[in-house]
Amino acid sequence: MMTRQQRHQDQQSRAFYELSALILNLIRYPPPSSIQYSGEVSTPRRITPAGLASMLLGVSLALMFCGSITFFIGFLLMPWVIGLVMLLYVAGIVSSLSILGRAIFCHTLAPASPRKTVHGMILLLID
Question: For residue range 62-79, what is the model confidence (pLDDT) as tens digits?
């Protein structure tokens, strides 16, 4: 019986294995555009360690750049989001207070009169 942590580690190792296999397949085979159709068969080129380092550096720089842009956009939008939330809270408080005030106002101004029920609704009979 496997524990939760062992299953999590197995899932992580499986994802790492699949990612490694994908990268190795990308490195091992040339792109289809390098195939020549003039009858010559080109030999597949192998990537050099410098080429691999350049590719990994490009990938990491692209991820850092996208992450930085996303962070910057979120940083710029956060005051607007907080302001909108505060505005909606104030609108909710004002709405609640107006409903409460209307209930108190109507209750104190309405004379004590008999109430009559008509089809499930309560109507105040005002003389």
Answer: 888 888 888 899 999 999
